[in-house]
UniProtKB/TrEMBL annotation:
GO terms for cellular component: cytosol. Gene3D superfamilies: Luciferase-like domain (3.20.20.30). InterPro entries: Bact_Lucif_Oxidored, Lucif-like_OxRdatse_MSMEG_4141, Luciferase-like_dom, Luciferase-like_sf. SUPFAM superfamilies: Bacterial luciferase-like. GO terms for molecular function: oxidoreductase activity, acting on paired donors, with incorporation or reduction of molecular oxygen. Residues 20-197 form the Luciferase-like domain. This is LLM class F420-dependent oxidoreductase.
Length: 281
């Protein structure tokens, strides 16, 4: 289908949240000046949580990061997209991806599965500029540029952002997620974030991508090296974390969704970051 829809303006900084995000938290993040909220943890095809967050807010863009193509049928997701887009024009970005071989029994030929899924969404009238693709390696990054608004890489460094921008070209959206721990004690920060990093180092697609970025076999084993930890999980005071966000923007990102980890209550950190980044509505 011919796509005449303009790309959604995400703004430079958003929030990435795994698990359930309450409408009350979404309202507060919007008030703090974050322009987008990414809903992680493979939301269901119905996308009811996305709609509730949009209903509660006024200008916040809500994006999925990401809908898993093996778990959520494309035709049902397309129906959900149209329902939500009609209710909240220009505020919903549908992120899709193939997930992980280790977590999905159906996982097979992911590139071909992604293209077939995109074909269904296209036939159902979901505009290209309202889609974004989880992408790490060159082949899927090129697919993201060809078939969607752009790419949403996860667990990456500013160097990956620089390389991704070269592959995507100047026009495609590039929105890399970055993890943050607001803690000026390196040992304490590592204690808070090591279990998270260890989990991702058990997933082949992330490990392969980190190897492409120059991390050694020893660095991507077990809990990961200190160098790797600092590269993918920014830790320190709010100004240091803000500098890590700017590094992605300077490397070519259009928008950086921030994921605060290592705490049960991330809102205080998001407040400090909003101040350090000088966000405002």
């Amino acid at each position: 289908m011919t796509d005449t829809v303009n790309r959604i303006a995400l703004g430079p900084v958003g929030v990435w949240r795994g698990g359930r995000t309450t409408p009350e938290l979404a309202v507060e993040l919007e008030r703090l000046g974050y322009s987008a909220l990414w809903v992680g943890s493979s939301p269901s095809a119905e996308l009811a949580d996305v709609e509730a967050l949009l209903d509660a807010t006024e200008t916040l863009v809500v994006a999925t990061g990401i809908v898993n193509i093996w778990k959520s049928p494309a035709a049902e997701v397309a129906r959900s997209y149209h329902r939500i887009a009609a209710r909240h024009p220009d505020r919903f970005l549908l992120g899709i991806g193939a997930g992980h071989r280790e977590a999905t029994a159906e996982f097979a030929r992911p590139y071909e599965a992604l293209t077939a899924y995109l074909d269904v969404l296209d036939e159902a009238g979901v505009p290209k500029q309202r889609l974004v693709l989880a992408a790490l390696g060159p082949r899927v990054l090129r697919l993201a540029a060809e078939r969607t608004a752009g790419a949403h890489p996860y667990l990456v460094t500013p160097e990956h952002t620089r390389q991704a921008r070269q592959i995507l070209g100047p026009e495609a959206l590039l929105a890399p997620e970055h993890k943050l721990i607001l803690d000026t004690d390196p040992a304490s920060a590592r204690a808070a974030g090591t279990s998270t990093l260890r989990m991702y180092l058990g997933l082949n697609n992330y490990v392969s991508n980190l190897r492409r970025l120059g991390f050694t076999e020893d660095e991507v084993r077990g809990d990961g090296s200190d160098r790797l930890f600092d590269a993918v999980i920014a830790n320190g005071d709010a100004d240091h974390l803000a500098a890590a966000v700017r590094a992605h923007l300077e490397a070519g990102a259009d928008h950086v969704p921030l994921q605060v980890i290592g705490t049960d209550d991330a809102l205080p950190a998001y407040r400090e970051l909003a101040s350090a980044l000088k966000l405002s509505r």
